[in-house]
Write a structure and sequence with these properties.
Number of helices: 8
Strand content: 25-35%
Shape: elongated
Radius of gyration: 23 Å
Distance between the termini: 38 Å
Structural class: alpha+beta
Number of strands: 11
Helix content: 25-40%
Largest sheet: 6 strands, antiparallel
Number of domains: 2
Order of helices and strands: EHEEHHHEHEEEHEEEEHH
Length: 209
């Protein structure tokens, strides 16, 4: 592989090219149990015997999309609140930098566990909620690259579309098509064979758990 003419997807999967994670940071983290869900979600989570005792009425159907807490639903159905599972609501957002010493190239990525405002997770504890949430992280948004060498680096995609990356002290945004290709590559394979995915996963877990 010629350094000055680089297919980034290939470089990220080449076993002879080593990547490290630098500056993994969490910019947003929410874990709480007092969030609201549409009534339909709470109703679906009810035990069958409770559903049988509280069949859907016209009034309940009208409110099926209304956000409520588990306690709100318990009050509405006049049942013990412990009968209605109350999920944890979790969201985290962060950034991480992949750096390759051989190429003198850094890639800055954004990651999150959900595109929703908050992701409901049914489990016993806050700790368990975070463990479940961190299993489903994915990269999103723009991808930025930094050329730390003294030479211009031509980054190609698999269709040979070039992006000239000048050596400069600030990050530059990859073209949209190349960004999507990198995000897809990282997120598509969650197996242990995906080295970049594996090292990112470890860095994210180290920050959150």
């Amino acid at each position: 592989m010629i350094k000055n003419n680089l297919i980034l997807q290939t470089a990220l999967t080449d076993p002879d090219i080593t990547w490290q994670v630098h500056n993994c940071k969490i910019s947003e983290q929410t874990v709480k149990q007092d969030g609201k869900l549409p009534l339909m979600y709470h109703y679906d989570a009810l035990p069958d015997e409770v559903k049988t005792a509280h069949l859907l009425s016209a009034d309940l159907l009208k409110q099926f999309s209304t956000p409520m807490t588990a306690q709100d639903v318990a009050d509405k159905l006049s049942v013990d609140a412990t009968l209605i599972p109350s999920p944890w609501f979790v969201k985290f957002v962060g950034t991480a930098v992949l750096f390759c010493e051989q190429l003198q190239l850094a890639i800055r990525l954004k990651f999150t566990n959900t595109a929703k405002d908050l992701d409901p997770i049914y489990c016993a504890s806050k700790t368990d909620a975070m463990k479940i949430a961190v299993q489903d992280w994915h990269c999103f948004g723009e991808v930025f690259v930094l050329n730390k060498s003294s030479d211009v680096l031509t980054i190609l995609d698999l269709d040979d579309n070039p992006f000239e990356l000048e050596p400069m002290p600030s990050y530059q945004q990859l073209p949209t098509a190349q960004s999507i290709a990198i995000l897809t590559l990282i997120d598509a394979d969650t197996s242990a064979q995906n080295t970049v995915r594996r090292i990112l996963d470890k860095a994210i877990r180290d920050r959150l758990l």
